[in-house]
Design brief:
The strands form two sheets. The protein has a seven-stranded mixed β-sheet, sandwiched between helices. A two-stranded antiparallel sheet has the order 7-8. Residues about 1-5 have low confidence and may be disordered. The chain is an alpha/beta fold and about 260 residues long. It is globular, with a radius of gyration of 18 Å. The protein folds into two domains: about 1-40, no CATH class; about 45-250, no CATH class. The longest helix is centred in the last third of the chain and has 25 residues, at about 225-250. The relative contact order is 0.16. α5 packs parallel to α7. The chain has helices at about 10-20, 20-40, 70-80, 100-105, 115-120, 135, 155-160, 225-250, and strands spanning about 45, 55-60, 85-90, 110, 125-130, 165-170, 180-185, 190-195, 210. It starts with 8 loop residues before the first helix and ends in a 6-residue tail after the last helix. The chain contains eight helices and nine strands.
Length: about 260
């Protein structure tokens, strides 16, 4: 635990004393929590130097683990790698009331819409999203590392703004929770998907985050209206990510060591 944090204890105390309540709640405590998560999951980052240091970029990753820890840890590691503060496209349930919406926005989360993504990219920001959506995050453990069908908004965002796409793999988050099933509620909450996890406390699986080489789409922005092209591009990128996932999983000796 000696090397758990880069910030020394006396520095943490001094920062806490000098900080107002808002800084404490939305900056220092999240950083503290994320550094703790990084140690708990023993996160290893590979190829982080490819994350753009300037300009807009679309970082897409496989989604898993039920809890959404992968989104928080990925946000943290992108910030460390690029010295930039990315925007994470997040499920609209975060923004239904002020209790969750205010801290979500402070942490760099924005509601997951194509319009919000394009707006951030035009401001030359990094946008993080999970093309599988909740169907990836809440898939049963029996389908671990089998990518669910990608939604195609990320391709349209990239085409309309000329931004590169950075495919990213998160290996290890699948094993943090054992998810028995994926429940689709249709009677009262149409379209809402929920998990059925076996455990609440996450298991200490070892994580690897791999940033693949950025993809620059060689098409004009008008191509975003070509539904067939957009579909083909999304499927091609999904196939590349699945192939790399399969390759990396064969290298893994143990989930927890």
């Amino acid at each position: 635990m000696r090397n758990l944090f880069r910030i020394k204890p006396d520095e943490i105390l001094r920062n806490l004393l000098d900080s107002d309540r808002e800084t404490l709640v939305y900056k220092l405590l999240p950083h503290f929590f994320l550094e703790l998560m990084k140690t708990y999951f023993r996160v290893v980052v590979e190829n982080g130097q490819v994350v753009p240091k300037r300009g807009g970029a679309v970082v897409i990753a496989n989604h898993s683990g039920v809890s959404g820890f992968d989104a928080m840890v990925l946000h943290h590691e992108i910030t460390r790698a690029s010295k930039r503060y990315p925007r994470v496209l997040t499920h609209h349930l975060w923004f239904l009331n002020k209790t969750t919406a205010i801290p979500a926005k402070r942490l760099g989360f924005i509601e997951a819409t194509t319009e919000n993504g394009i707006k951030a990219l035009r401001k030359k920001q990094i946008v993080v999203l999970f093309p599988e959506g909740e169907y990836g995050n809440f898939k049963p453990s029996s389908k671990a590392y089998h990518l669910q069908e990608f939604k195609r908004g990320f391709v349209r965002m990239a085409l309309l703004t000329g931004s590169p796409i950075v495919p990213t793999l998160v290996i290890g988050a699948e094993e943090t929770h054992v998810n028995l099933s994926r429940l689709k509620l249709t009677r009262f909450l149409r379209g809402v998907v929920l998990p059925l996890p076996l455990n609440i406390i996450p298991l200490p699986s070892k994580w690897r985050i791999i940033f693949m080489d950025p993809i620059k789409l060689p098409y004009k922005k008008e191509s975003a209206n070509d539904r067939e092209l957009v579909r083909e591009l999304a499927e091609e990128i999904q196939e590349k990510m699945q192939e790399r996932l399969n390759k990396e999983l064969k290298k893994r000796n143990s989930v927890f060591l």
